[in-house]
Amino acid sequence: MAGLTLEHLFKRYDNSGKKKRTVNDYAVNDLNLKCEQGEFVALLGPSGCGKTTTLRMIAGLEDITKGNIYIDDCLINDLHPKDRKIGLAFEDYAMYPPLNVYGNVAFNLRAKGVDSAEIDRRVREIAPLMQIEDLLEKMPVKLSGGQKQRVNIARAIIREPEILLMDEPLSHLDGKARQAMRIEIKRLINKIKCTTIYVTHDQLEAMSLADRIAIINFGVLQQFGTPTEVYDDPANEFVASFIGEPPMNILETKIIKKEGVYFFSFENSNLQITVPRRYYDVIQDGFRCKVGVRPMDVLIGGEDSVGTPEHIATFENLGDERRIGIHVGDMLLMLITEDERRYRRDDVVKLEVRGEKTHLFDIETGERIREKA
């Protein structure tokens, strides 16, 4: 078990057809991360954001344009992949069809010339951990997707790596299998206590598995924090909208002042939301920004509510929750309710918002506008 540090890491592919290079040429742009021993870190972001490229640089499968990678205090930039003490579980199972499960799990150890008795000991030790002890004699063609992924992960950890890298290991599984395998991965990591870097575009996987999440967009680190931190205290509009299902409502607003009280107002809408007093030092009458609020923090008020009456645009009954969409001008505000009532389009409800749960973002840059300390 070891720590991992990425210092000012850059990756730029050769774009020979371009005359002038720009900052956008970098697949990974000045990435800094420090992962503690035994920590589970998820690299999260949309497709093409640079997370797999980062993983491949850690593994030694991609050259580094600039920057340094350390395992503990050892600089590994120029180390061959086989000398980095890293285990890698690919997105593709990449099993060897002529070999049975036992042979696939043991392959790396045999290639390194490990003694047969030691190989057998390690395979028999890892098989129950990955729940594949009954599959050792089976051929890959006879395995389900979930079973193949278990073998894939077993092949990575049998090397007893200091760092375990996992590149979207659940992407080929269906919904039910993904959920089951997610629980298995959590159980496994808790047991082997290996420093793990996990690449995914699925924020549910990252939130449920990781100790900390590094959210990346266009090769740039947006925020690095615990699931609670990135959910409750997003650094910018991108993080706020990427984390959470359904995503945070983010609406353009103009702040107006009436009788000493500030309100969020919205173009082509009668909806007005009271601005929390903690923002009074950073706003003024006529100030434009974006306000973010999560669907579960938008409430349907009772008959005596002073909330603004609004017409329902969409209603979805998902069994354990109901999702309601309401037009706010040209924007759609989503809310979640556990109310068992079945609403219809154009039903009128009164909206209330938990003001303490709102977030402000700069209308141009998307950066968080924070209240003064």
From TrEMBL:
<dbReference type="InterPro" id="IPR027417">
    <property type="entry name" value="P-loop_NTPase"/>
</dbReference>
<dbReference type="InterPro" id="IPR008995">
    <property type="entry name" value="Mo/tungstate-bd_C_term_dom"/>
</dbReference>
<dbReference type="Pfam" id="PF00005">
    <property type="entry name" value="ABC_tran"/>
</dbReference>
<keyword id="KW-0813">Transport</keyword>
<dbReference type="InterPro" id="IPR017871">
    <property type="entry name" value="ABC_transporter-like_CS"/>
</dbReference>
<dbReference type="InterPro" id="IPR012340">
    <property type="entry name" value="NA-bd_OB-fold"/>
</dbReference>
<keyword id="KW-1278">Translocase</keyword>
<feature type="domain" description="ABC transporter">
    <location>
        <begin position="4"/>
        <end position="243"/>
    </location>
</feature>
<keyword id="KW-0067">ATP-binding</keyword>
<dbReference type="InterPro" id="IPR003439">
    <property type="entry name" value="ABC_transporter-like_ATP-bd"/>
</dbReference>
<protein>
    <submittedName>
        <fullName>ABC transporter ATP-binding protein</fullName>
    </submittedName>
</protein>
<keyword id="KW-0547">Nucleotide-binding</keyword>
<dbReference type="InterPro" id="IPR003593">
    <property type="entry name" value="AAA+_ATPase"/>
</dbReference>
<dbReference type="InterPro" id="IPR047641">
    <property type="entry name" value="ABC_transpr_MalK/UgpC-like"/>
</dbReference>
<keyword id="KW-1003">Cell membrane</keyword>
<keyword id="KW-0472">Membrane</keyword>
<dbReference type="GO" id="GO:0005524">
    <property type="term" value="F:ATP binding"/>
</dbReference>
